[in-house]
């Protein structure tokens, strides 16, 4: 063990579980690229530096392509990722790119970094302005190639995860969701991240992959060195650097206990989700990656309340999933969880889930930009592929469609016209489909909540997305650890909106559920049921605990609880009142779900 002293860092536990491994630090940020004028006698050496960086990058990419792809990846995906890497290698060798960069170094007497940066950015911009999807994708390839070259020139080497022995704890200041998927599937057993709140997409991905994670660890990459032994405790929100042998032993035991508890939790999957007074509460699963459907079934979820289909794209970008890929995925989900419903949310790209190859815009504030339904309606061809697959999947299974980031009735109507066109197209082609596909929307923007009564007349169901509803209502970035304390689910404004949304749905006679992270918090469940929610969708692992909570509650007192909470002035007051209620209920019902089984 290393001679350094044990150090405990406290952050935000964002994905439950304990992992023990060795640190691999990821620096995501390239240094600034400066334009440095060079004296004539240095030009040849600078051109040689560029060639060296290019050759190093080609060697690295070839190695990754030949041996580094995870073996359990689907064949199709293997092929596609191999194809992307091959395209990057070809670009790096492309005489036109090489010629332009070297001509720039020689012609403008500038450093290689500047020449690479300017040349790849100019070429990428030209490609991105082209309407054709394939050619626009080449723009992203050029950005990627530019980044590889700059990394090599700046001496930032890629982390070859395969070179590190044993389990890996990934330590990063920030980690985009796409990277988290890639790395989380690849021998990474824990994440320690500088940025990120509980509902950031990267931490949602960590939970999907069942990789313990702690976020909000300021300057974590400066405290850790590659290969340091590290423990991540996602439940407690702590990261322990240089643990002693004693600490390691303690956490190994804790991990065993947690695994055993997890298995016990799965045993409760057959228990009905019903309150003491006999009201059914439907507990569904939020799924980001198709493989999670097995967890959904094992933990007893009654359907999929949210499939974040954008990850289908993010995983294989810049390539777009084909209609058959969409159809295969939706059918797989529906089959595994039949006869329960599967709600597929259409691509919610843009915002932090950047999709540069789909967006030829640069946005100052992408969270308020071309995101969700706005982006897909602006890129109809890509959207058409997805909607065709949805109509087809719904022919055999209870598959429903849900639109993200809806802000107006116009958007719903426009979508309906578009969907009808597609259904007509499928009829003409003689392809089996369900023309009565149920159409629902996320309520996740304050304006949608405020016109919930008008929206309820236009759709088949609502699902309240509290992650964004809180972000936009409270003006608190869900990824920003500096304002995490202001991200208050119990803020009176949120409770008022929830009441109005639920009342609007009830009056219109449509179904309403909740799929934001609030829905999986057992502390909040009494209040949510009291407000009238009967459908909650959450990360699969949370279903047993929420079910145990549902089974211990009686609705009439919850309705009173919701009325009182709704009359309080601050989140803190609501929290205190809820706390007293929970303590009182706990002292009255001590029954464990496992006792019921025996
Ligand atoms: C939400 O906003 O609450 C939601 C469920 O969607 P996402 O977390 O994917 O933005
Ligand atoms: Mg959202």
Task: Quickly list its features.
single chain, 598 residues, alpha/beta, Enzyme I, Chain A, domain 2, TIM Barrel, eight-stranded parallel sheet, globular, disordered C terminus, binds phosphoenolpyruvate, binds magnesium ion
Which ligands are bound?
phosphoenolpyruvate, magnesium ion
Helix content range? 40-55%
Q: How much beta, percentage-wise? A: 5-15%
Distance between the termini: 45 Å
Taking Cα atoms only, what radius of gyration do you get, to the nearest Å?
26 Å
Summarize the structure.
With 598 residues, the protein is α/β, with parallel strands linked by helices. It has helices at 43-68, 75-93, 95-108, 112-128, 133-153, 177-184, 201-208, 220-223, 245-266, 293-298, 310-316, 323-337, 373-378, 380-396, 409-429, 446-450, 452-456, 466-474, 492-508, 525-531, 543-551, 555-567, 571-588, 593-597, and strands spanning 7-10, 12-15, 18-26, 168-172, 188-193, 213-215, 229-233, 238-241, 282-287, 304-308, 342-345, 399-403, 439-443, 461-464, 511-514, 535-538. It contains 24 helices and 16 strands.
Question: How would you characterize the overall build of this protein?
Answer:
By secondary structure, this protein is α/β, with parallel strands linked by helices. It folds into 4 domains: 7-34 and 162-263, 3-Layer(bba) Sandwich (Glucose Oxidase, domain 1); 42-157, Enzyme I, Chain A, domain 2, CATH 1.10.274; 272-280 and 441-598, Alpha-Beta Barrel (TIM Barrel), CATH 3.20.20.60; 303-437, Phosphoenolpyruvate-binding domains (TIM Barrel). The protein is built from 24 helices and 16 strands. It has helices at residues 43-68, 75-93, 95-108, 112-128, 133-153, 177-184, 201-208, 220-223, 245-266, 293-298, 310-316, 323-337, 373-378, 380-396, 409-429, 446-450, 452-456, 466-474, 492-508, 525-531, 543-551, 555-567, 571-588, 593-597; strands at 7-10, 12-15, 18-26, 168-172, 188-193, 213-215, 229-233, 238-241, 282-287, 304-308, 342-345, 399-403, 439-443, 461-464, 511-514, 535-538. Strands 1-8-7-3-4-5-6-2 form an 8-stranded mixed β-sheet. An 8-stranded parallel β-sheet has the order 15-14-13-12-11-10-9-16. Helix 15 (409-429) links the parallel strand 12 (399-403) and strand 13. Helix 1 (43-68) runs antiparallel to helix 3 (95-108), helix 2 (75-93) packs across helix 5 and helix 14 crosses helix 15 (409-429). The longest helix has 26 residues, at 43-68. It is globular. It starts with 6 loop residues before the first strand and ends with a helix. Residues 68-74 and 592-598 have low confidence and may be disordered.
């Amino acid at each position: 063990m290393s001679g350094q002293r044990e150090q405990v860092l406290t952050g935000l536990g964002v994905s439950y579980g304990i992992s023990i491994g060795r640190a691999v630090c990821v620096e995501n940020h390239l240094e600034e690229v400066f334009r440095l004028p060079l004296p004539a006698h240095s030009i040849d050496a600078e051109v040689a530096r560029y060639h060296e960086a290019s050759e190093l990058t080609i060697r690295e990419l070839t190695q990754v392509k030949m041996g580094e792809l995870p073996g359990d990846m689907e064949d199709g995906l293997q092929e596609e990722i191999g194809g992307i890497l091959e395209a990057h290698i070809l670009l790096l060798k492309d005489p036109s790119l090489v010629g332009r960069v070297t001509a720039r170094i020689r012609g403008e007497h500038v450093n290689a970094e500047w020449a690479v940066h300017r040349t790849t950015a100019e070429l990428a911009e030209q490609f991105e302005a082209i309407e054709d999807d394939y050619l626009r994708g080449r723009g992203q390839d050029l950005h990627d190639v530019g980044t590889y070259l700059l990394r090599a020139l700046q001496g930032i080497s890629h982390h070859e995860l395969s070179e590190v022995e044993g389990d890996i704890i990934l330590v990063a200041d920030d980690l985009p969701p796409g990277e988290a998927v890639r790395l989380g599937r690849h021998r990474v057993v824990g994440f320690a991240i500088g940025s990120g709140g509980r509902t950031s997409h990267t931490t949602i991905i960590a939970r999907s992959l069942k990789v313990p994670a702690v976020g909000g660890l300021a300057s974590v990459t400066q405290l850790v060195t590659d290969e340091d032994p590290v423990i991540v405790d996602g439940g407690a929100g702590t990261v322990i650097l240089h643990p002693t042998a004693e600490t390691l032993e303690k956490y190994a035991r804790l991990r065993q206990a947690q695994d055993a508890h997890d298995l016990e939790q799965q045993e409760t999957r057959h228990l009905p989700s019903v309150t003491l007074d006999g009201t059914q509460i439907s507990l569904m699963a939020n799924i980001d990656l198709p493989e999670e459907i097995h967890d959904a079934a094992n933990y007893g979820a009654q359907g999929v309340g949210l499939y974040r289909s954008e990850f289908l794209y993010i995983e294989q970008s810049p390539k777009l999933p084909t209609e058959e890929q969409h159809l295969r995925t939706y059918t797989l989900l529906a089959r595994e969880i039949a006869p329960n419903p599967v709600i597929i949310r259409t691509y919610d790209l843009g915002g932090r889930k950047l999709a540069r190859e789909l967006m030829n815009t640069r946005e100052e504030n992408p969270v308020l930009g071309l995101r969700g339904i706005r982006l897909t309606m602006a890129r109809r061809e890509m959207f058409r592929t997805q909607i065709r697959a949805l109509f087809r999947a719904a022919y055999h299974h209870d598959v429903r469609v849900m639109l993200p980031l809806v802000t107006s009735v116009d958007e719903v109507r426009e979508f309906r016209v578009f969907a009808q066109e597609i259904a007509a197209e499928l009829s003409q082609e003689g392809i089996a489909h369900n023309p009565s596909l149920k159409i629902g929307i996320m309520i996740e923007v304050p304006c949608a909540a405020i016109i919930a009564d008008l929206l309820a007349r236009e759709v088949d169901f609502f699902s309240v997305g509290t992650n964004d509803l809180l972000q936009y209502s409270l003006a608190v970035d869900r990824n920003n650890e500096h304002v995490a304390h202001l991200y208050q689910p119990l803020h009176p404004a949120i409770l008022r909106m929830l009441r109005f949304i639920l009342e609007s749905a009830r009056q219109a006679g449509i179904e309403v559920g909740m799929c934001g992270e609030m829905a999986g918090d057992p502390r909040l469940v009494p209040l949510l049921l009291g407000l009238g929610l009967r459908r909650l969708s959450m990360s699969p692992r949370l279903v047993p605990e929420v079910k145990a909570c549902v089974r211990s509650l009686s609705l009439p007192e919850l309705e009173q609880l919701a009325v009182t909470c709704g009359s309080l002035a601050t989140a803190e007051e609501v929290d205190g009142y809820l706390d007293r209620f929970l303590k009182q209920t706990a002292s009255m019902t001590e029954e464990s779900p496992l006792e019921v089984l025996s």
